[in-house]
Design brief:
The complex is a heterodimer of chains A (341) and B (189).
Chain A: H1 5-8, H2 18-25, H3 38-57, E1 70-75, H4 81-92, E2 96-101, H5 113-122, E3 127-132, H6 137-144, E4 149-155, H7 161-174, E5 187-191, H8 198-209, E6 213-217, E7 233-235, H9 238-241, E8 247-250, H10 266-273, H11 277-280, E9 288-290, H12 303-306, H13 313-333
Helix pairs in contact in A: 3-7, 3-13, 4-13, 7-8, 7-13
Chain B: H1 2-8, E1 15-24, H2 25-42, E2 49-54, H3 59-73, E3 78-82, E4 112-120, H4 124-134, E5 141-149, E6 161-165, E7 173-177, E8 180-187
Parallel strand pairs in B: 2-3, 2-4, 4-5, 5-6
Antiparallel strand pairs in B: 1-8, 7-8
Helix pairs in contact in B: 2-3
Classes of the chains: A alpha/beta (341), B alpha/beta (189).
């Protein structure tokens, strides 16, 4: 008797070892933090995303994978792209989509957050996509629910895991990196309002998990009070950092979250930290320019730089749909998250 | 199919233990040649034929068939790969994941599609594949080529080109690659 597994491997296209992957994702019923996934989990999602990019390119970009499942987007904070992206992703998987808007809900009659999400669960939903201005709310929601999966679509200043996944996907595929190489040796700078940015927090975790060297470039007032434990370096000189980069990731200046005067003026911020046309010329020719949107044109990035060839801002948006399809399918459809008897 | 079956069989895989070699590499090569010639015989205009291998077990056979058909007729035939994970009827019943992205580089409208898999068993994978193909255009006809037909169909599906009809027990596993066809059992890992 011989184990012939070896003879069966090496088939073209064999990409995912299901048994191994199932072991890794056992117990992953929710996606709350990018840290839950780890480097291997991130790589799994990126590979799965390739399949959904293919689906999205078809004349009929829809598969029946989540027929009969219901996904509800529960947004307590404004959003254009994340909400549309999740809802499009769910529809392309044939799931039913419900939309909850805080502004037109019974929250206005004094209903509590807990009662609200338990009411949503009682309608029989399989997944909740939650955004809230309070850090940690998705964890709390996940604790209140018994059954549905919770996906964090951005909580306060804390995390935005699917944004980090779509950023990793965009970088690896645009730079043509092999899946197993991750981002090792790549130099990425995150520029701007790190302090208020959940995107920056999730991106730092994801990029460094995949092996990238991350530099934060920001004025001291827009850095978090403490960077202890962050696996990053810090610079205040964008001009010196730019020529060394594979990717420059520009963040939006979140003026709506600024409670105090953190900047002398917007114009001064643009002059020192904005990605102007002059600064963009310092980049290597094949370097990528990224931005999570919405873009303040002329503030953190010049309008013409946002539209120049190295800019992959629109690719980030279209990859976002495919990445969210992968996350929804992984949590609600694939069955690999379920414990196996 | 065999690898997919093995990977998805509860409890998560297990080890495939070979028992009997049914075809060796030579037998597989001869069967592939015969099937390629049958394809040419039945489809007079091979320019309208697209050979689509199912991920991942059917891909090697699809490549081989396309190569032989191309050599014999002197014309290249279309070649693609198809992953049916999102169309399976057992999503939610057992772990289902795509093994690789689908790659169909041309519109299938008005083409004759030859679906290729390594092992034909319950027919459910082929049912899923037929649904998936419909999303790539309205094919003129779909034909099915498999290296091994092992019986135990659960749906009204039959192959057009068969390498070998192989009676099996339902609990056995069949592994069909270009190096041979083996019957075996799966034991817990």
């Amino acid at each position: 008797m011989t184990d012939v597994r070896e003879t069966a491997t090496g088939l073209p296209g064999a990409a995912i070892d299901l048994a191994e992957m199932a072991g890794r994702h056992r117990g992953h019923r929710h996606l709350l933090s990018i840290a839950d996934l780890g480097a291997e989990g991130i790589t799994d999602v990126l590979r799965l995303t390739d399949s959904f990019v293919e689906v999205s390119r078809r004349a009929i970009p829809k598969v029946p994978a989540l027929r009969g499942k219901t996904v509800v987007s529960v947004f307590f904070e404004d959003s254009t792209r994340t909400r549309l992206s999740f809802e499009t992703a769910a529809r392309r998987l044939s799931a039913d989509v419900m939309t909850f808007s805080a502004s037109s809900s019974s929250l206005n009659k004094g209903e509590s957050l807990k009662d609200t999400v338990q009411t949503i669960q009682a309608m029989g939903v399989d997944g909740l996509v939650v955004r809230h201005s309070g850090s940690g709310v998705p964890w709390q929601v996940a604790g209140w629910l018994d059954g549905p999966s919770v996906i964090n679509a951005g909580d306060g200043w804390h995390e935005h895991p699917t944004q980090a996944l779509l950023d990793c996907y965009t970088i690896t595929r645009k730079l043509g990196l092999a899946p197993e190489a991750g981002l090792s040796g790549r130099r990425i700078a995150i520029v701007g309002d790190i302090r208020h940015s959940r995107v920056a927090r999730s991106d730092v975790l994801a990029f460094t998990a995949l092996g990238a060297e991350v530099t934060l470039v920001a004025p001291p007032t827009l850095l978090p009070p403490s960077l202890a434990g962050w696996p990053v370096s810090v610079s205040h000189d964008l001009d010196r950092v730019l020529p060394t980069l594979d990717v420059v990731y520009v963040l939006r200046l979140q003026r709506e979250r600024m409670l105090e005067a953190l900047l002398p003026s917007i114009r001064e911020y643009t002059a020192t930290y904005g990605l102007t046309r002059r600064r963009a010329a310092l980049l290597e020719e094949d370097a990528l320019i990224m931005h999570p949107g919405p873009v303040n044109r002329g503030v953190e990035i010049a309008a013409e730089v946002a539209d120049q060839p190295g800019s992959v801002i629109t690719a980030q948006v279209s990859n976002g749909v495919a990445v969210r399809m992968a996350v929804l399918f992984l949590l609600l459809g694939s069955g690999v998250d379920l414990a196996v008897a | 199919m065999a690898k997919r079956e093995r990977a998805l069989a509860p409890p998560y895989g297990g080890v495939f233990v070979a028992r009997t070699t049914v075809m060796d590499a030579d037998d597989v090569r001869r069967a592939t040649w015969r099937m390629a010639h049958e394809i040419i015989e039945r489809n007079t205009d091979t320019g309208e034929v697209v050979i689509v291998g199912l991920q991942t077990g059917g891909v090697w056979l699809a490549q081989r068939l396309a190569q032989v058909v191309g050599e014999v007729t002197g014309h290249d035939v279309g070649l693609g790969t198809l992953d049916v994970a999102f169309y399976r009827d057992d999503i939610g019943l057992r772990p289902v994941l795509p093994e690789a992205a689908t790659n169909i580089p041309l519109d299938l409208t008005a083409k004759t599609v030859i679906l290729v898999d390594d092992v034909l068993f319950t027919g459910r994978t082929i049912r899923a594949a037929l649904n998936a193909l419909a999303d790539y255009g309205r094919a003129r006809a779909v034909q099915l080529a498999v290296m091994v037909d092992r019986g135990h169909r659960e749906l009204p599906i039959r192959p057009d080109y068969v390498g070998k009809n192989l009676p099996t027990r339902r609990d056995e596993m069949v592994d069909a690659t270009d190096t041979g066809v083996i019957i075996g059992d799966v034991t817990a890992p």
